[in-house]
Amino acid sequence: MIAPVQVLNEADRYKLDGSDDALFYAEPRFVQHLDAGFRARLTSLYRERIPPCAVVLDLMSSWVSHLPDEVTYQEVIGHGLNAEELKANKRLDRHWVQNLNVDQQLPLANECVDVALVVAGWQYLQQPEAIATELLRVIRPRGEVIVAFSNRMFFQKAPQIWTDGGDSDHLAYVGQVLMAQGWNQPQLLEEDTTSAGAFGWLGGKGDPFMAVIASKPINS
Ligand SMILES: C[S@@+](CC[C@H](N)C(=O)[O-])C[C@H]1O[C@@H](n2cnc3c(N)ncnc32)[C@H](O)[C@@H]1O
Q: Could you report the per-residue pLDDT of 85-96, keeping only the tens digit for each?
């Protein structure tokens, strides 16, 4: 693997629960980690940005990928920490299990993916620079990475760089890590969403929506 450009220091990488992440994810969680308003916005973003012919990588996935039901992609490759969740994810054509805080090398060929997605996952990465480097390797030139998240997290499993910051800090931080590894300057989205049902009709807000969208330079 190409040596990544380090952005974080040791303290930034520290998390309260330092036990093996595989233990934390040993039991499947068939729950939605993000509310309906957030999920609707994410699916509409995917509809806008991902062409149907694309090979999609859903990194840090679960039993759901939030891709639009009506679109068939060339292939959707999934990765996560719980095999049962991934097996239950109907959008995935294939998947693998890997602890990215232990091993950052992705078992994928160079430039075989068009778009990589990370949803509510980046906040658990202790070596995000190496992951950004690997994503740059496996994505085709002009391909994109879309990192989406809200303001929720499993606090004890998130490194200090995430727990110490707010939404805007998180956007800037993800962008900084990507650019340090050679990704183009990303587009940053920070939006309100509408709550589902009656609360939404009354103006109630859903989970805030944040996304970092970066493209791979043609010559990298
Ligand atoms: C909050 S869930 C989000 C899952 C999914 N992307 C979604 O939208 O529902 C966080 C996910 O991050 C992944 N994850 C967390 N820590 C990880 C680690 N150390 N290595 C690999 N994946 C990890 C797991 O796949 C876990 O399901």
A: 999 999 999 999
Atom 5, ligand 1: residue with shortest CA distance: 61
CB of residue 120 inside a 6 A radius of ligand 1 = yes
Q: What is the pTM of this model?
A: 0.97
- Tell me how far the alpha carbon of residue 79 lies from the centroid of ligand 1, in angstroms: 9
> Which fold would CATH assign to domain 10-215?
Rossmann fold (3.40.50)
CA distance 128 to 178: 9
Residue pointed to by tokens 């920490």: 81
| Strands across the sheet containing 113-119 | 94-97, 75-80, 55-59, 113-119, 139-149, 209-215, 187-191
Question: Would you give the distance in Å from CA 205 to the centre of its chain?
Answer: 23
CB 162 near ligand 1, within 6 Å: no
User: pLDDT tens across 9-59, in order?
Assistant: 999 999 999 999 999 999 999 989 999 999 999 999 999 999 999 999 999
